[in-house]
Amino acid sequence: MAGNDLGSLLGTLLSGAKGGSSAGGAGGLLGSLLGQLGGKGAAGGTGAAAANGASGNPLEGLLGMLNKSGLGEQARSWVGQGDNKPVTGDQIAQALPDDALQKAAQDAGVSPREAADHLAGSLPEAVDKLTPEGEVPQGESLQDVISRQLGKLGGLGK
Fold first, then answer.
1. pLDDT (tens digit per residue) in 85-114
2. What is the maximum alpha-carbon separation in the chain?
């Protein structure tokens, strides 16, 4: 399933910086969420990406949702080259479609509240790592972006 592969890669990317199993769990949660937001490329695509103006790019879709929910300043800080501004679990829960958050929580085996809190803690770093040049990558899959970043961390990818 695409979400599981993406989650595994994200977990490896996050644990490359943090270490520990919580980063792997966050990767699975993020992978599930981004897989749902990816539209056509997601397993059982929910159409959330199309509804939010994204063209099959889950990161663009996520950032668009955050922007529309009043979290644009925080999201821009994650993409940009400066410090990452924090968000709360409540803000994430309000920004995401309920069905996407519930499905991601179910996939991770946690409550939607726990999922929102985990996402609030891991999204700033994940988006920062997925946008190393200070902008959302265009024309390549998130898996390719993550693999390239893992390669920079010492050949962990591929």
1. 999 999 999 999 999 999 999 988 999 999
2. 38
